[in-house]
Amino acid sequence: MRITQVKFRQNSPRLTAPVFAALALSFASAHLHAQVSLSTVVELAQKNSATVRLAQADVQKAASLLSESKDAFIPTVSFGSGLPAFPEIGFTGSLPTIWDGTVQSMVFSLPQIKYIQAARAGLQSAQLALKDAKEHVALDASTAYIEMDTVNSELEAVREQEQNAARLVTIEQQRTDAGVDPLSGLLQAKLTAAQLKLSRLHLETRNATLAKQLATLTGLPDGSILPDHSSIPEIPAVSAGEAPISTPAQDAAEAETKSKLLVAKGDKEHLWLFPEIGFGAQYNRNTTLLNNVGSYFNTPHGVLPADNFSAGFSIKVQLFNMGLHAKERESAADALRAKVEAEQAQQQNDIEISQLTASLRELDAEAEVASLKQQISAEQLKSVLSQLELGNGATGTPGAPPQLSPTAEQQARIDERQKYLDALDSGFDLSKARLNLLRALGHMQDWLDELHTK
């Protein structure tokens, strides 16, 4: 690397600032496209995802609901004052106080215990839903990242094809001008070059779309992510024959069902005539300021005591309440709906596993075929190059194949790169299907754990 030395004169301050600005811009542009590992992309996508942030908010809400349900057994303490504003006239029935304090709490309630258990199951459901949201974002980010890495390799191969096609056009032009080949050969070479140009444009558009998608997922500037192929771990070749485990989405649905069932049980226990026991205590500091309420009571000297305190337990039994009956039917319907939705989610996941397994077998076979075709094409290219260099060894022999023309090399190179592109496409389709099957089988976390160790 050549290092350029720049000298500044002390009497040229106007030159210094622009040069430093230009140097800063050059360094910024040099680092605009940097290799970012797949694990970093996944972490940024999970932090930037609106779905994950919404799931985190649901976890916070569920934790607050659990705390709120427990707090029913924790005493609440309140203070107040009832100072009069104007002189009272007559008997009002209330005692003006300098200040008063009240303590209240629930002591025993079977329904409240069920509500606490329901809130705990709801929190578990929200946490599992958060895990599922993170896995979903990780799947999207991984798929886009692997696809961009594949597209970059395909772009390199297509550019090589274009160079070979340009040489092919040049050779055909010379052979056509010399009358060796017909014009159709030149036109076919130009068509091949045009088709390869179109393929490159398609890949560039696809690459730009993936760059935008990754920028949206991660929050990084558009086009600033350059995939690092070495950071992509090998995707295990799982199959539906392996024992599937429950996915976070299924566990979340089951926990939500449990929560709804516990709420329904709690509402039903309100109708079982079990008592609810509460505790309360109250203290008043009365005042005779602007009132003579004490004269209305039969006490010595017509004076009420300034300090007053009371405490006791309250016992409440629901004998008849149509509102509770309606609420119990409502919560039972919610529990039934949650159960049906959980069963539906399980059935859909089973169908997805079956479909992915079937397509995975086909994609695996297609990838094998594409790989073999690429290997055969590479061997054919070697044979063409060898014949062009050494000849076919049978010149002048009756029935011998004709000597290859210079166009054969470029056509063989173009064909070999095309088979390489087909192999890359098949490999990506196979990787994508394997990732989706990993998630459907509940093994996505294993992939993420391996990803973070790369």
Overview of the molecule:
- This protein is α+β, with helices and mostly antiparallel strands.
- The chain has a domain at 110-271 and 341-388 and 403-454: Outer membrane efflux proteins (OEP).
- It contains 9 helices and 6 strands, in the order αβααββααβαββααα.
- It has helices spanning 13-30, 38-48, 50-70, 110-177, 183-218, 248-269, 322-390, 407-440, 444-452, and strands spanning 34-36, 76-80, 97-108, 225-227, 276-286, 307-316.
- The protein has a 4-stranded antiparallel beta sheet, with no helix packed on it. The chain has a two-stranded parallel sheet with strand order 1-4.
- α4 runs antiparallel to α5 and α4 (110-177) runs antiparallel to α8.
- It is elongated, with a radius of gyration of 39 Å.
- Mean pLDDT is 85; it is low at 1-31.
Work out the radius of gyration. Answer: 39 Å
CATH H level, superfamily name of the domain at 110-271 and 341-388 and 403-454? Outer membrane efflux proteins (OEP)
The stretches of 5 or more residues where confidence is low (pLDDT under 50) are 1-31
Distance between the termini: 31 Å
Structural class: alpha+beta
Strand order of the largest sheet: 2-3-5-6
Shape: elongated
Overall helicity:
55-70%
What order do the helices and strands follow? HEHHEEHHEHEEHHH
Q: Give the tally of β-strands.
A: 6
Proportion of β residues?
A: 5-15%
CATH class of the domain at 110-271 and 341-388 and 403-454: Mainly Alpha
CATH-defined topology of the domain at 110-271 and 341-388 and 403-454: Outer membrane efflux proteins (OEP)
What count of helical segments does DSSP give?
A: 9
CATH architecture of the domain at 110-271 and 341-388 and 403-454: Up-down Bundle
